[in-house]
Structure formats: structure tokens, C-alpha cells
Amino acid sequence: MTVSQITTPPGPGFVCGIHLATGIHATEAFTVAQLLAYHSPPRLAHESAERISENMRTFAEALRLGPSAEHPPHIGHRIRVRRGMPFLDYGDNTYRLRVPAATSWTRLVAAGRPVRILVLFDPLDGGASQGEIAEHVRACFGRGTMRWGTTYHV
Q1: Cα distance between residue 3 and residue 13, in whole Å
Q2: What is the pLDDT of residues 26-70, one digit of tens each?
Q3: Residues 59/37, Cβ–Cβ less than 8 Å
Q4: What's the DSSP call for residue 10?
Q5: Where are the beta strands (DSSP E) in 76-126?
Q6: How far is 22 from 105, CA to CA, in rounded Å?
């Protein structure tokens, strides 16, 4: 990727509205820490579902995430754990996102396990239940309105 191809992420005014949720996917073969990013539905007069979707696409492009119909690409080192607190480097030169995570998730990441990042383009209420979130992720995956990739802690 050349410098001219690097996507500038949305500004902090938009990014502060992104919700982050973590989980651990464990099978007999492997364990992956998961990080889900989605935005609340429009609340202000200048917001629209289309604009939110566009900004979430830009957020995903800045992270270099790939389409959900393809194998998730390795996106470089985007997760940092400092003093027990995980942060997401989403491509902004100044800001990082603090990841609210359980100690078990943070330990897994700090130990070098892969982190699968999923960014959903379609808005979802911040108060959605686990079941509603899971249903929304499946729907976005099916519609192709999701991007994903794999990163590691450094």
C-alpha cells in the first residue's frame, strides 16, 4: 500500500460514537479474541444511516480490513495493551480507541493470540442485547455490509 492509498479515518467526533464489544472464540483447534465495532443509529439532525455507513466503511478502510466474503487479511499490529488496558490503533495519527474488555480477553491478546476485528456498516442501538448483536452480525455478514481482519498485540 502506497502513501497515496492510505485512507484517512473518520474524525474523533464520529469515532467517539463507535461501540466496541469483545469476545473470545475458542475451539479445540484455536482461540481467537474478537473485537466488534459498530455505530449507533442517527440521533442528531446532521446524521443519517447512509452517512454512518459511509463513515464505518472509511473506518474499515483505514484499518485495511477485507470483505467478509473473503479470508480475513492480516492488517498489521493494531492492538496495543499498556498497563493492562487495550487500545485500538485505527489509523489516526493522534487518537486511539480504548477497548473495554474483560481481563480474560486482555490476557489472551497480551499473550500474542490473534484478534479478529469486525466492523459493521449498518447502525445498531448501543443498548442491544448479546442476541440482537449476534443477529445483526449475521445479517451484516450475509448482506456484505461488514469488513474484517486479523491483528496481533505488539
Answers
A1: 24
A2: 999 999 999 999 999 988 888 899 999 999 999 999 999 999 999
A3: yes
A4: P
A5: 79-82, 85-88, 97-98, 115-120
A6: 7
